[in-house]
């Protein structure tokens, strides 16, 4: 995960923890019955748990999408480099074969001139 992703996850965790602490402190100081306060704390904890699951799902999807994009880009780049290398090899191979054939013809001509 990138440094930015770690920062985002840390900020998200801090916000959720701060919200939970604020809700719990607010409920504990509210002038209600203990039973009612515990029910509110449980309900709020369930809400926060659901929010955390949703955020985790969102972040997870973003990470998967980014991985997919990076993976595709890498594959495309690797294929492009492979094709460029192959094309360069083919180009220079053909030039070398052509030059070699020219040299062979020149040598054969020189040999024929020497035989005469």
TrEMBL record:
It comes from the Bacteria. This is Gas vesicle protein. Keywords: Membrane, Transmembrane, Transmembrane helix. The chain crosses the membrane at residues 12-30. The keyword Transferase does not apply.
């Amino acid at each position: 995960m990138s440094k930015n992703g770690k920062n985002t996850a840390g900020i998200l965790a801090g916000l959720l923890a701060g919200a939970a602490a604020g809700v719990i402190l607010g409920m504990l100081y509210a002038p209600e019955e203990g039973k009612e306060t515990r029910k509110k704390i449980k309900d709020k904890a369930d809400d926060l748990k659901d929010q955390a699951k949703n955020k985790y799902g969102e972040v997870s999807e973003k990470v998967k999408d980014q991985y997919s994009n990076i993976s595709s880009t890498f594959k495309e780049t690797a294929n492009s480099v492979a094709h460029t290398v192959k094309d360069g090899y083919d180009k220079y191979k053909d030039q070398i074969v052509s030059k070699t054939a020219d040299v062979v013809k020149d040598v054969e001509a020189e040999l024929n001139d020497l035989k005469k």
